[in-house]
Amino acid sequence: xxxxxxxxxxxxxxxxxxxxxxxxxxxxxxxxxxxxxxxxxxxxxxxxxxxxxxxxxxxxxxxxxxxxxxxxxxxxxxxxxxxxxxxxxxxxxxxxxxxxxxxxxxxxxxxxxxxxxxxxxxxxxxxxxxxxxxxxxxxxxxxxxxxxxxxxxxxxxxxxxxxxxxxxxxxxxxxxxxxxxxxxxxxxxxxxxxxxx
Length: 197
Ligand SMILES: C[S@@+](CC[C@H](N)C(=O)[O-])C[C@H]1O[C@@H](n2cnc3c(N)ncnc32)[C@H](O)[C@@H]1O
Prior knowledge:
Elements: H1 3-32, H2 41-58, E1 69-73, H3 79-87, E2 92-97, H4 100-113, E3 118-122, E4 135-138, H5 142-155, E5 161-165, E6 176-181, E7 187-193
Parallel strand pairs: 1-2, 1-4, 2-3, 4-5
Antiparallel strand pairs: 5-7, 6-7
Helix pairs in contact: 2-3
């Protein structure tokens, strides 16, 4: 076989493989109204820093984050959940993601990094029971956060921390705001805590 034919075959395989991937990503983006774009590394770092500080200051039972159940709502390609599993090795991290290709990719990513405390579940987070959550991590548009709010109010136990990258939960007052960038974009991490009663 000539090199020319070999390269034609490789090109055809890549193109044919990419088409179903693109169709699937577009389909789920349309269905969930949010694309599977990953958070940037410095925002992930800020989210985990905020979580560590909050646990240290407010969770006398778990100041270093031991024995917690941490959910990431819409874990995309998995970078934040992997970082969280590494930062809190004695806690359970569960990434919930609806779009199948990012879930498969995340599972491979999780295996490569070998964090035994990390699970990626293909699920619609609106259908999941969050009663066991201690921490909720979010990087989600405000239009979706508004829809999640009643679920949080119904299911989350008092003291649950909700840490939201960039987007506010309308109608809730954050207990703290971490300013990550002021210009050219205003980028904050918003920290909420489910009140008692
Ligand atoms: C902006 S991405 C966030 C990626 C990830 N959290 C990160 O920080 O890199 C939002 C993700 O939420 C997922 N998503 C949106 N609605 C969902 C739902 N109802 N259930 C599960 N995942 C959902 C989308 O498929 C998308 O991958």
